[in-house]
Amino acid sequence: MSEKMIVTIALLGGTGQVGPGLARRWASNGYRVLIGSRESEKAERVAGELNDELGLETIQGFGNLEAASQADICVLTVKASAHQPAVEGLREVMKGKIFVDATVRVDYKDPHPPEPPAAAELAQEILGPDVRVVAAFQTVPAHMLKQGLGQPLDMDVLVCSDDVDAADEIIKLAQGADLQAYYAGRLENSIVLESLTALILTMNKHYGSRTGSIRITGLPVE
Predict the structure, then answer these.
(1) pTM, full prediction
(2) In this predicted structure, what is the pLDDT of residue 148?
(3) Which backbone phi and psi does 10 adopt, to 5 degrees?
(4) What are phi and psi of 46, to 5 degrees?
(5) pLDDT of residue 68
(6) With contact defined as beta carbons under 8 Å apart, do 175 and 31 qualify?
(7) 52, 124, 188, 220: which one has the fewest Cβ atoms less than 10 Å from its Cβ?
(8) Which positions ≥6 away from 137 have C-beta within 8 Å?
(9) Cis peptide leading into 117, omega within 30 of 0?
(10) Beta-carbon neighbour count of residue 221 at 10 Å?
């Protein structure tokens, strides 16, 4: 069995836009995917809809805590206003796990770069040193994730963490969603990822697009 077949990913707060998009790509590539939500019934409904869409039976829905407790890697995809309470509610079940924070503290209607510290740094402070926090997927447009399943997307993922081994695991996970990814430094650098999202949103608005993203050139592809 390949490595990706034994990895269980929980998308916490995974009933919005980014969560189902990532779920589609990972589940269609053989990962076990759990959708988490504050309301387990909502998570079960979204999981069922994704299974029907993809012709699968492997995606499951749970409350956030139950999903996190079953997962190897947890990916938080909540809106900014829900970030702190969501992280605080997960503290008891995250010990020893990789926690990926995809939060962007930006007003999508009037985007401006947020003030430091970054959301992922706040998550690390709340969760403590026994949790390996990684920032990733902030600059990936949700609209694009549902397109071209099984095919590489024309965008890159920037990954920040104080734990380089954990960052490498998430780079592999991004590749498992047919996305190229690069290590972009320590967790404090993730404030730049949030700010880049504000920049992309501003450019999308100016050019009437929903698909602006980041592409890295001049570096070796792993």
Answers:
(1) 0.95
(2) 87
(3) -105, 125
(4) -65, -40
(5) 98
(6) no
(7) 220
(8) 18, 22, 75, 77, 100, 102, 157, 174
(9) yes
(10) 8
Which of 197, 189, 191 is CA-nearest to residue 213? 197
**What is the side-by-side order of every strand in the sheet holding 180-183?**
60-63, 32-37, 8-12, 73-76, 98-101, 132-135, 156-161, 180-183
Q: What residues does each domain of the chain span?
A: 3-207
Residue 71 · residue 8 · CB < 8 Å: yes
Cα–Cα distances in angstroms (integers) from residue 172 to residues 32, 79, 159, in the given order: 15, 25, 11
Identify the burial level of 23 via C-beta atoms within 10 angstroms of its C-beta, where 0-12 means exposed, 13-18 middle and 19 or more buried. Answer: buried
**What tokens does 14 get?**
């995974």
- We find that the CATH architecture of domain 3-207 is 3-Layer(aba) Sandwich (3.40)
Cβ burial 187-207 (10 Å sphere, 16+ → b, else e): bebbbbbbbbbbbbbeebeee
Q: Two tokens at 65?
A: 């805590």
Compute the CA torsion angle 195, 196, 202, 203 (nearest 10 deg).
Answer: 170
Q: What is the pLDDT along the chain (222 residues), one digit of tens a residue?
A: 344 446 999 999 999 999 999 999 999 999 999 999 999 999 999 999 999 999 999 999 999 999 999 999 999 999 999 999 999 999 999 999 999 999 999 998 999 999 999 999 999 999 999 999 999 999 999 989 988 898 999 999 999 999 999 999 999 999 999 999 999 999 999 999 999 999 999 999 999 999 999 999 999 987
Q: For position 40, what pLDDT does the model report?
A: 97
Question: Within a 10 A sphere around the Cβ of 174, how many other Cβ atoms?
Answer: 24
